[in-house]
Design a protein that fits this description.
two-stranded parallel ribbon, globular, TIM Barrel, alpha/beta, binds (5S)-5-amino-3-OXO-hexanoic acid, binds zinc ion
Length: 308
Protein backbone atom coordinates (compact mmCIF):
# COMPACT_ATOMS: atom_id res chain seq x y z
CA UNK A 1 0.00 0.00 0.00
CA UNK A 2 1.30 3.43 -0.97
CA UNK A 3 -1.07 5.60 1.02
CA UNK A 4 -0.45 5.97 4.73
CA UNK A 5 -2.63 7.30 7.52
CA UNK A 6 -1.11 9.28 10.36
CA UNK A 7 -3.06 9.25 13.61
CA UNK A 8 -2.13 11.79 16.26
CA UNK A 9 -3.06 11.04 19.90
CA UNK A 10 -3.00 14.49 21.44
CA UNK A 11 -2.92 14.06 25.22
CA UNK A 12 -4.05 10.63 26.49
CA UNK A 13 -4.15 9.63 30.13
CA UNK A 14 -0.65 8.30 30.73
CA UNK A 15 1.50 11.38 31.00
CA UNK A 16 0.96 14.03 33.65
CA UNK A 17 1.52 17.80 33.55
CA UNK A 18 4.74 17.59 35.58
CA UNK A 19 6.36 15.59 32.79
CA UNK A 20 6.04 18.23 30.08
CA UNK A 21 4.78 21.81 29.86
CA UNK A 22 3.71 21.02 26.29
CA UNK A 23 1.10 18.39 27.17
CA UNK A 24 -2.30 19.82 26.10
CA UNK A 25 -4.64 20.10 29.06
CA UNK A 26 -7.29 22.79 28.53
CA UNK A 27 -9.94 22.65 25.82
CA UNK A 28 -8.17 25.48 24.07
CA UNK A 29 -4.85 23.65 24.13
CA UNK A 30 -6.40 20.38 22.93
CA UNK A 31 -8.32 22.11 20.11
CA UNK A 32 -5.24 24.05 18.94
CA UNK A 33 -3.04 20.95 19.17
CA UNK A 34 -5.52 19.02 17.05
CA UNK A 35 -5.80 21.65 14.36
CA UNK A 36 -2.02 22.00 14.13
CA UNK A 37 -1.58 18.22 13.97
CA UNK A 38 -4.18 17.99 11.20
CA UNK A 39 -2.46 20.79 9.32
CA UNK A 40 0.83 18.90 9.63
CA UNK A 41 -0.69 15.75 8.11
CA UNK A 42 -2.68 13.81 10.69
CA UNK A 43 -5.82 12.32 9.13
CA UNK A 44 -7.11 10.99 12.46
CA UNK A 45 -7.07 12.61 15.90
CA UNK A 46 -7.27 10.20 18.86
CA UNK A 47 -8.89 12.12 21.69
CA UNK A 48 -9.00 12.12 25.49
CA UNK A 49 -10.08 14.98 27.75
CA UNK A 50 -8.51 16.45 30.86
CA UNK A 51 -9.72 18.56 33.72
CA UNK A 52 -8.53 22.04 32.73
CA UNK A 53 -7.71 23.03 36.32
CA UNK A 54 -5.66 20.02 37.35
CA UNK A 55 -4.67 18.32 34.09
CA UNK A 56 -6.08 15.05 35.40
CA UNK A 57 -7.55 12.67 32.76
CA UNK A 58 -11.29 13.29 32.66
CA UNK A 59 -14.29 11.33 31.44
CA UNK A 60 -16.66 14.27 31.91
CA UNK A 61 -18.62 14.79 28.66
CA UNK A 62 -18.52 18.55 29.35
CA UNK A 63 -14.73 18.48 29.05
CA UNK A 64 -15.03 16.77 25.64
CA UNK A 65 -17.82 19.14 24.60
CA UNK A 66 -15.48 22.05 25.23
CA UNK A 67 -13.16 21.09 22.36
CA UNK A 68 -14.96 18.66 20.02
CA UNK A 69 -17.08 21.25 18.12
CA UNK A 70 -14.01 23.46 17.75
CA UNK A 71 -12.08 20.61 16.21
CA UNK A 72 -14.94 19.70 13.91
CA UNK A 73 -15.16 23.32 12.71
CA UNK A 74 -11.45 23.95 12.58
CA UNK A 75 -10.21 20.92 10.69
CA UNK A 76 -11.43 18.02 8.62
CA UNK A 77 -9.59 15.25 10.51
CA UNK A 78 -11.46 12.17 11.68
CA UNK A 79 -12.29 12.61 15.37
CA UNK A 80 -11.62 9.33 17.16
CA UNK A 81 -12.76 9.22 20.80
CA UNK A 82 -10.97 7.02 23.27
CA UNK A 83 -13.09 4.45 25.07
CA UNK A 84 -10.01 3.38 27.03
CA UNK A 85 -10.16 6.66 28.92
CA UNK A 86 -7.96 5.89 31.86
CA UNK A 87 -7.62 2.51 33.55
CA UNK A 88 -8.91 4.04 36.80
CA UNK A 89 -12.28 4.98 35.21
CA UNK A 90 -15.41 2.82 35.13
CA UNK A 91 -16.70 1.61 31.76
CA UNK A 92 -19.79 3.80 32.16
CA UNK A 93 -17.53 6.81 32.52
CA UNK A 94 -15.30 5.74 29.64
CA UNK A 95 -18.34 5.48 27.38
CA UNK A 96 -20.24 8.61 28.39
CA UNK A 97 -18.64 11.19 26.08
CA UNK A 98 -18.47 8.84 23.10
CA UNK A 99 -22.15 7.93 23.47
CA UNK A 100 -23.03 11.61 23.45
CA UNK A 101 -20.79 12.50 20.49
CA UNK A 102 -21.55 9.42 18.35
CA UNK A 103 -18.17 9.83 16.63
CA UNK A 104 -17.07 8.32 13.34
CA UNK A 105 -14.40 6.39 15.18
CA UNK A 106 -13.60 5.19 18.70
CA UNK A 107 -10.75 3.26 20.25
CA UNK A 108 -11.43 -0.24 21.55
CA UNK A 109 -8.97 -2.04 23.81
CA UNK A 110 -9.06 -5.75 23.09
CA UNK A 111 -8.19 -7.28 26.44
CA UNK A 112 -7.85 -6.94 30.18
CA UNK A 113 -4.28 -6.25 31.20
CA UNK A 114 -1.82 -4.55 33.51
CA UNK A 115 -1.14 -0.93 32.61
CA UNK A 116 1.79 0.06 34.78
CA UNK A 117 2.91 3.67 34.77
CA UNK A 118 4.78 3.71 38.09
CA UNK A 119 8.34 3.66 36.69
CA UNK A 120 7.65 7.15 35.33
CA UNK A 121 7.00 8.51 38.82
CA UNK A 122 10.60 7.86 39.86
CA UNK A 123 11.87 10.31 37.23
CA UNK A 124 9.86 13.30 38.46
CA UNK A 125 11.41 15.58 41.06
CA UNK A 126 8.88 18.42 41.14
CA UNK A 127 5.19 17.68 41.09
CA UNK A 128 2.77 20.29 39.79
CA UNK A 129 -0.41 18.66 41.13
CA UNK A 130 -1.21 16.51 44.17
CA UNK A 131 -3.01 13.81 42.17
CA UNK A 132 -0.10 12.91 39.90
CA UNK A 133 2.17 10.93 42.23
CA UNK A 134 -0.51 8.60 43.69
CA UNK A 135 -2.04 8.20 40.21
CA UNK A 136 1.24 6.96 38.76
CA UNK A 137 2.42 4.98 41.78
CA UNK A 138 -0.95 3.26 42.26
CA UNK A 139 -0.66 1.72 38.81
CA UNK A 140 1.45 -1.10 40.29
CA UNK A 141 -1.82 -2.65 41.43
CA UNK A 142 -4.17 -1.59 38.67
CA UNK A 143 -6.12 -3.73 36.23
CA UNK A 144 -7.14 -2.16 32.92
CA UNK A 145 -10.43 -4.01 32.57
CA UNK A 146 -11.61 -4.86 29.07
CA UNK A 147 -13.53 -8.11 29.42
CA UNK A 148 -15.46 -9.70 26.54
CA UNK A 149 -18.63 -8.26 28.11
CA UNK A 150 -17.09 -4.77 28.13
CA UNK A 151 -15.95 -5.12 24.52
CA UNK A 152 -19.36 -6.39 23.42
CA UNK A 153 -21.02 -3.45 25.13
CA UNK A 154 -18.79 -0.91 23.39
CA UNK A 155 -19.34 -2.61 20.03
CA UNK A 156 -23.10 -2.57 20.58
CA UNK A 157 -23.54 0.90 22.03
CA UNK A 158 -21.08 2.74 19.81
CA UNK A 159 -20.81 0.49 16.77
CA UNK A 160 -24.23 -0.99 16.18
CA UNK A 161 -26.33 1.77 17.77
CA UNK A 162 -24.28 4.81 16.71
CA UNK A 163 -22.39 3.74 13.60
CA UNK A 164 -18.87 4.22 14.94
CA UNK A 165 -15.97 2.19 13.59
CA UNK A 166 -12.98 1.23 15.65
CA UNK A 167 -9.29 1.58 16.25
CA UNK A 168 -8.73 -1.91 17.70
CA UNK A 169 -5.94 -1.49 20.25
CA UNK A 170 -3.99 -4.74 20.42
CA UNK A 171 -1.21 -4.93 23.00
CA UNK A 172 -0.59 -8.64 22.67
CA UNK A 173 -1.27 -11.71 20.57
CA UNK A 174 -4.28 -12.65 22.66
CA UNK A 175 -5.97 -9.43 21.59
CA UNK A 176 -5.91 -10.59 17.98
CA UNK A 177 -7.61 -13.81 19.02
CA UNK A 178 -10.23 -11.73 20.82
CA UNK A 179 -10.84 -9.63 17.71
CA UNK A 180 -11.27 -12.82 15.69
CA UNK A 181 -13.81 -13.98 18.27
CA UNK A 182 -15.88 -10.83 17.76
CA UNK A 183 -15.57 -11.17 13.98
CA UNK A 184 -16.95 -14.69 14.32
CA UNK A 185 -19.84 -13.29 16.39
CA UNK A 186 -20.44 -10.78 13.54
CA UNK A 187 -20.13 -7.89 16.00
CA UNK A 188 -17.32 -6.34 13.95
CA UNK A 189 -17.07 -5.86 10.21
CA UNK A 190 -13.99 -5.60 7.97
CA UNK A 191 -11.83 -3.82 7.15
CA UNK A 192 -10.43 -3.95 10.67
CA UNK A 193 -8.10 -1.09 11.63
CA UNK A 194 -5.73 -2.73 14.10
CA UNK A 195 -3.50 -0.52 16.21
CA UNK A 196 -0.56 -2.55 17.48
CA UNK A 197 0.54 -1.04 20.79
CA UNK A 198 4.15 -1.53 21.88
CA UNK A 199 5.95 -0.55 25.03
CA UNK A 200 3.17 -0.29 27.62
CA UNK A 201 4.30 -2.15 30.77
CA UNK A 202 1.68 -4.88 30.72
CA UNK A 203 1.62 -5.33 26.95
CA UNK A 204 4.21 -6.50 24.43
CA UNK A 205 7.61 -4.87 24.34
CA UNK A 206 8.88 -2.64 21.53
CA UNK A 207 10.81 -5.35 19.71
CA UNK A 208 10.77 -5.45 15.92
CA UNK A 209 10.27 -9.23 16.12
CA UNK A 210 7.01 -8.67 17.98
CA UNK A 211 5.60 -6.66 15.09
CA UNK A 212 6.66 -9.31 12.62
CA UNK A 213 4.96 -11.98 14.66
CA UNK A 214 1.77 -9.97 15.22
CA UNK A 215 1.54 -9.52 11.46
CA UNK A 216 2.08 -13.22 10.82
CA UNK A 217 -0.80 -14.09 13.13
CA UNK A 218 -3.03 -11.25 11.90
CA UNK A 219 -2.52 -12.45 8.33
CA UNK A 220 -3.60 -15.91 9.43
CA UNK A 221 -6.65 -14.70 11.33
CA UNK A 222 -7.86 -11.90 9.06
CA UNK A 223 -6.25 -12.42 5.65
CA UNK A 224 -6.75 -9.26 3.61
CA UNK A 225 -9.55 -8.00 5.88
CA UNK A 226 -7.35 -5.79 8.01
CA UNK A 227 -4.96 -2.88 7.93
CA UNK A 228 -2.54 -2.13 10.69
CA UNK A 229 -1.06 0.85 12.40
CA UNK A 230 1.66 1.01 15.02
CA UNK A 231 2.15 3.07 18.12
CA UNK A 232 5.10 2.64 20.42
CA UNK A 233 5.52 4.32 23.77
CA UNK A 234 8.35 6.64 24.65
CA UNK A 235 11.59 6.64 22.72
CA UNK A 236 10.49 3.72 20.56
CA UNK A 237 7.79 5.85 18.91
CA UNK A 238 9.66 6.95 15.79
CA UNK A 239 11.77 3.81 15.17
CA UNK A 240 8.71 1.58 15.30
CA UNK A 241 6.68 3.99 13.17
CA UNK A 242 9.45 3.72 10.60
CA UNK A 243 9.29 -0.08 10.77
CA UNK A 244 5.52 0.00 10.35
CA UNK A 245 5.74 2.36 7.39
CA UNK A 246 8.39 0.21 5.74
CA UNK A 247 6.15 -2.86 6.17
CA UNK A 248 3.07 -1.23 4.64
CA UNK A 249 1.34 -0.15 7.86
CA UNK A 250 -0.03 3.10 9.16
CA UNK A 251 1.42 5.08 12.05
CA UNK A 252 0.33 6.81 15.23
CA UNK A 253 2.27 9.51 17.02
CA UNK A 254 1.33 12.18 19.56
CA UNK A 255 2.06 13.25 23.11
CA UNK A 256 -0.24 10.54 24.48
CA UNK A 257 2.38 8.00 23.47
CA UNK A 258 5.66 9.91 23.75
CA UNK A 259 6.62 13.31 25.11
CA UNK A 260 9.86 13.56 23.17
CA UNK A 261 10.86 14.49 19.64
CA UNK A 262 14.28 12.86 19.93
CA UNK A 263 16.15 11.20 22.75
CA UNK A 264 16.09 13.48 25.79
CA UNK A 265 14.35 16.40 24.03
CA UNK A 266 10.72 17.22 24.75
CA UNK A 267 8.46 17.67 21.74
CA UNK A 268 7.12 21.22 21.71
CA UNK A 269 3.86 20.11 20.14
CA UNK A 270 1.94 17.21 18.66
CA UNK A 271 2.38 18.78 15.24
CA UNK A 272 6.14 18.54 15.61
CA UNK A 273 5.87 14.75 15.94
CA UNK A 274 3.45 14.56 13.00
CA UNK A 275 5.85 16.58 10.85
CA UNK A 276 8.75 14.33 11.84
CA UNK A 277 6.95 11.08 11.12
CA UNK A 278 5.71 12.54 7.86
CA UNK A 279 9.29 13.17 6.75
CA UNK A 280 10.22 9.60 7.70
CA UNK A 281 7.33 7.91 5.91
CA UNK A 282 7.65 10.06 2.81
CA UNK A 283 11.34 9.21 2.63
CA UNK A 284 10.25 5.57 2.58
CA UNK A 285 8.06 6.23 -0.46
CA UNK A 286 4.71 6.40 1.30
CA UNK A 287 2.12 9.02 0.46
CA UNK A 288 0.36 10.69 3.37
CA UNK A 289 -3.41 10.39 2.93
CA UNK A 290 -5.87 13.01 4.15
CA UNK A 291 -9.11 12.66 6.11
CA UNK A 292 -11.32 11.96 3.10
CA UNK A 293 -9.14 9.05 2.05
CA UNK A 294 -9.14 7.87 5.67
CA UNK A 295 -12.95 7.87 5.64
CA UNK A 296 -13.04 5.86 2.44
CA UNK A 297 -10.37 3.40 3.54
CA UNK A 298 -11.93 2.80 6.96
CA UNK A 299 -15.58 2.86 5.86
CA UNK A 300 -16.55 5.74 8.15
CA UNK A 301 -20.01 7.30 8.25
CA UNK A 302 -18.80 10.90 7.80
CA UNK A 303 -18.43 13.88 10.12
CA UNK A 304 -21.94 15.13 9.34
CA UNK A 305 -23.41 11.94 10.81
CA UNK A 306 -21.88 12.55 14.25
CA UNK A 307 -23.53 14.42 17.13
CA UNK A 308 -20.53 16.71 17.60
N1 LIG B 1 -2.58 5.03 25.56
C1 LIG B 1 -2.34 4.02 24.60
C2 LIG B 1 -1.24 3.13 24.98
C3 LIG B 1 -7.24 4.19 24.49
O1 LIG B 1 -7.28 5.41 24.52
O2 LIG B 1 -8.21 3.51 24.20
C4 LIG B 1 -3.54 3.23 24.32
C5 LIG B 1 -4.81 3.97 24.10
C6 LIG B 1 -5.97 3.49 24.83
O3 LIG B 1 -4.85 4.87 23.29
ZN1 LIG C 1 -5.79 6.83 24.09
Amino acid sequence: MREILITCALTGSIHTPSMSPHLPVTADEIACAGMEAAEAGAAILHLHARDPETGRPSADPAHFRAFLPRLKEGCDAVLNLSTGGSAVMSLDDRLAAAKEAAPEMASLNMGTMNFALYPMAARITEWRHDWEKPFLEGSDDLVFKNTPRDIARILTELGQQRGARFEFECYDLSHLTMLRHFADRALVKPPYFIQFVFGVLGGMGPDPENLTHMLRIADKLFGTDYMFSVLAAGRHQMPMAAQAAAMGGHVRVGLEDSLTISRGTLARSNAEQVAKVRTIVEALGREVAGPDRARAMLGLKGAEATAI
